[in-house]
């Protein structure tokens, strides 16, 4: 379940207007995800835009998705030490 949520967030960030390569704050990432999901009719719309980008511009889509995943991981994933303390 957690990996699906992270993947949906990454797809929404991919579809957002934030420039790839930027390192936005957690608040800005959250706002971009919310706006992206709203304007694209949900997470399925974000994933559809992601798929279209891979079909039309695969060389740039790969770079943008790597960026989106790394930003999402830095904002939403707990460091291993925190996971061990939570268990």
Shape: globular
* Largest sheet descriptor: none
Mean pLDDT: 89
Strand content: under 5%
Structural domains: how many: 1
Low-pLDDT regions: none
Count of helical regions: 5
Summarize the helix and strand pattern as letters.
HHHHH
Class derived from helix and strand content:
mainly alpha
Radius of gyration: 13 Å
Give the % helix: over 70%
Query: How many DSSP-defined strands?
Result: 0
Distance between the termini: 18 Å
Structure explained in plain terms:
The chain is an all-alpha fold. It has one domain. The protein contains five helices and no strands. It has helices at about 1-15, 25-40, 45-55, 60-75, 80-85. α1 crosses α3. The two termini are about 20 Å apart. The model has no long low-confidence stretch (mean pLDDT about 90).
Question: How is the secondary structure organized here?
Answer:
Elements: H1 2-14, H2 26-39, H3 43-56, H4 58-76, H5 80-86
Give descriptors for this structure.
87 residues; mainly alpha; 77% helix
Quick recap:
The chain has 87 residues and is an all-alpha fold.
């Amino acid at each position: 379940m957690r990996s699906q949520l992270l993947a949906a967030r990454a797809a929404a960030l991919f579809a957002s207007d934030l420039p790839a390569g930027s390192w936005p704050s957690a608040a800005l990432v959250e706002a971009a995800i919310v706006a992206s999901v709203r304007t694209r009719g949900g997470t399925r719309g974000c994933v559809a835009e992601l798929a279209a980008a891979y079909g039309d511009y695969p060389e740039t889509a790969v770079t943008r998705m790597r960026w989106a995943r790394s930003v999402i991981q830095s904002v939403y994933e707990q460091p291993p030490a925190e996971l061990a303390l939570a268990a």
